[in-house]
Write a structure and sequence with these properties.
By secondary structure, the chain is an all-alpha fold. Helix content is 71%, strand content 0%.
Amino acid sequence: MAVTAVLLATLVPLARLRPGRWVTVVSWILALLLVANEIEYQVYQLGHGSWGAGYSLPLYLCDIGAFVAAAALIWPKPILVEVTWFWAIAGAVQGILTPDHAIVFPSYDWLEFYGDHIGVVLAAVFLVVGRRVHPQPRAVLRVIVVSVAVLAVVGIVDAVTGGDYDYLRSSSPGSIQSLLGPWPWYILGTTVVGLVLFAVLDLPFWPERRRAKRQDAARGGLGNVGSQQPV
């Protein structure tokens, strides 16, 4: 958490106050680190004979989010930034606070796990707050559709491999899910919590959207006045 706070406190204000080519360079570096971390983890497991289809695939939302965040850092398209923002703050932060297994420091497991989660959070805040690429109207709806589609695919993989990616078969130990009852009720509870978090994370952008809407209406009104022909 301290590392996350220091990085955010350093990079985000600089991106807002001193934008320039360095922002692109940092974005590329962070994107490459996120992707390299995911690939290296696969290589590490294969090299140590610990890889398994039921638990090693990068199908947890934080793993998928790392690839999405990397793409958003290089190509800051609205949907990529929106998915990165909502998944990172609503999900990856939970992973940082309540990891799903014991992690010993120092170890490769520690570096991989926190590198992934901290990297995704850093990418989200750097994009949205630092680079000011804000979620657009109906962003929550779009991210919900993407999330449901992704989890549907993950559910199929779980059924085929016997895995438990994204905790669709059992709740994440030590997390808020463990307080929401047995399967399938904790899935319903997690969905409700997720929707509330998405709505809260979307609130800061409402004033900006209202201002933009008023400005568009004003420009439209002026355009209509200018187009009127005298009788």
